[in-house]
Design brief:
single chain, mainly alpha, about 45% helix
């Protein structure tokens, strides 16, 4: 998980205990590599799609219906 902006990405958490837990994980975690650094030889569009799918806040994460509209699926999509 890339470093997240607390106000934006944790805004969906309603429980103080949940918020404290996630902040503690963030505080105790090492700085992670970006996903593009983990897959340097991959198609940048595919890496971006995976990054979107791993979005921590579900309100900012695209739905499967939105993702399937990507050009990545043009060759296999049945209209």
């Amino acid at each position: 998980m890339d470093d997240f902006d607390t106000d934006k990405d944790l805004s969906f958490l309603t429980s103080a205990d949940s918020l404290d837990y996630v902040k503690q994980i963030k505080y105790n975690s090492k700085k992670s590599k970006g996903i593009s650094q983990l897959f340097p030889n991959s198609d940048p569009d595919l890496v971006e799609m995976v990054r979107q799918m791993l979005e921590f806040n579900p309100f900012f994460r695209p739905s499967a219906k939105q993702l399937i509209q990507s050009e990545l699926f043009d060759n296999i999509r049945i209209n």
